[in-house]
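Entry 14. Two folds queued back to back today. First construct below, sequence then structure tokens.
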Amino acid sequence: MATWFISDTHFGHANIIRYCARPFATVTEMDAALIATWNEAVAPDDEVWHLGDFCFRNPRAPSSYLSRLHGRKHLVWGNHDGEETRVAQGWASSQPIAEIAVGGVSVVLLHYAMRVWHRSHHGSLHLYGHSHGRLPGDTQSCDVGVDAWNYRPVGMPEILRRMRHQVPRVAKPHGSFA
């Protein structure tokens, strides 16, 4: 079983194509591509953490997408995830923030990027979305949105490789809070 991360799919949101210069002619094409890339990566028994903005301004029910996507899916709420999305049939869990461990690594999941987070001074990592690839991470944080990862979910090995090449975090000063 693998663990995957993704954010900002915006299923059904036609304007996101223009806002983010996504390479799709229509929302139908975008939705089909996002579902295909998701299911190519994710096995049915894998864990998937969606860090918000699952769908937006969409006449289709969120559950109509969830039922077509592989994996055991968890939602960390984004600013465009209304009550219908938060409680949709198909989420294994739904919450505003999550703290998990992946391969012994502590990870804090939130839709928004943070500068500090629980145990950040002790090696904990932070994954976020919302910025659509426009806010670079560092050696402890990373944007997992589809616009930053070729419209697909991303696994921890790839995230860690990217983090190694990002700008290092500023070292904590002697005597800093922890």
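Second construct, same run, same settings:
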Amino acid sequence: MFKTYNVEIKNLISKKDPSTDWKKVLDNHKEMIAKIQHERLIHLLVTIFVGSVMTTSSFIVIVTKQLELLVIALPLLILFTAYLFHYRYLENTTQSWYVLEDEIKKH
């Protein structure tokens, strides 16, 4: 959803069509920013939680020296890494949408 919208809004801004209702575009863009901010917040909380669980499980593996527990720790490490990349995408997209909002306001 966000990737599609990102392409659409960039295309709309680059066309600079005089018949475009920029007020509606701005209102819609602000609504999309609110949605991505909510998504970003939820993913931040989940990322923090998964990171905490991963850290705790890794600590337990180190302290107990039971390598069998790596069955829990390694998938959490992979999951945490994936969440970090996704959160990075959400953060960068949100920041770029703030710039696009300024461009829309100029019209």
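Quick look at the second one. Helices lie at 2-15, 22-64, 70-106. The mean pLDDT is 91.
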